[in-house]
Structure prediction request, 339 residues.
Amino acid sequence: MKRIRKYGVILLLLSVVLTACGGKATPAAPTEDPSIVRTSAASTALARLTEIALLTPSPTSTTAPTATSAPTNTPTVSPTAPTAAVSPTGALSTAGAATGDKAEFVADMTISDGTEIAPGASFTKTWRLKNVGTTTWLASHYTLVHISNDAISGPASVNFPKDVAPGESVDLSVDLKAPTTTGSHISYWKLKNDRSLLFGIGPTGQDSFYVQIKVVVGTGTTQLAPTATNSNGAGLVTATNITIDPATFTGACPKKHTITILFNLVSASTLTYKLEAGSDTPGFTFTIPGAQTNSFPAGQSTLVFDLDLSSSGSGWVKFHITSPVDHVSLPATFNLTCE
Prediction:
């Protein structure tokens, strides 16, 4: 026991000596408590989160905007554009009822619907129209305008012969040429006002009026006669058209035939005129009116004669102006078969 104490004292003294000699033992690394490490990490994370929270501006509480309906775009409604009426020379607009322009069909003065005309023959169509609107049709601004047709040839437009006040009527004529193809053909027309707007007849003043012919071989409608001149060389009669209706007939006789003559004068004049007729049928005879003298205004005039034919035959009729100029129309032919 003494020996053990002795050795212990020696070891203690040896330790003191080594310390006194300046040797320093490297201290052993302290063993960290895991719970302390976790606590430190948590404290560091919390500090970092706190720092971030302090640096980040707090969001201002804003009341969510109330949803507002997008404003409804109410389209501006433009007035409906009137239907354009197409003519051979381009597109034209149609006049509305507010323009005050409106016409009323009165009568076909020449070339009634279905009139038989020879292929390629020239003829004059005349309509009588009444101004039932509220504006005056000025001859200097209003025209008769071609709208469409299947084959009939004619001008694109024709000037008015005179001013036409509301309530008045006017005869409007146009020189046309029948197609060479046989069958029924039709040509549509309207009027054009001073604003280049089209108008016509019917309840709304929008309807066209027309000429309808039947092209057949051997008819009673003539071509236009050439212009006649008076003694001073100026043109007096600018056009003459003669038709006979019916041109062809088979049935009970006697049969009345109506002869319609249309002519245009450059100036007012007193005319002496007569009908001339002939036939290639042996023994075929008929009576025609004698010469007459009457005064006519400048522009278009119409004469109508009736012939009662009582026997079968074929023939022709002409209109002959004898004074103050000499002017003869081309013949209108007819054929009659009595049963």
About this structure: The chain has two helices and 21 strands. The chain has a mean pLDDT of 73. The radius of gyration is 55 Å. The first helix runs from residue 2 to 20.
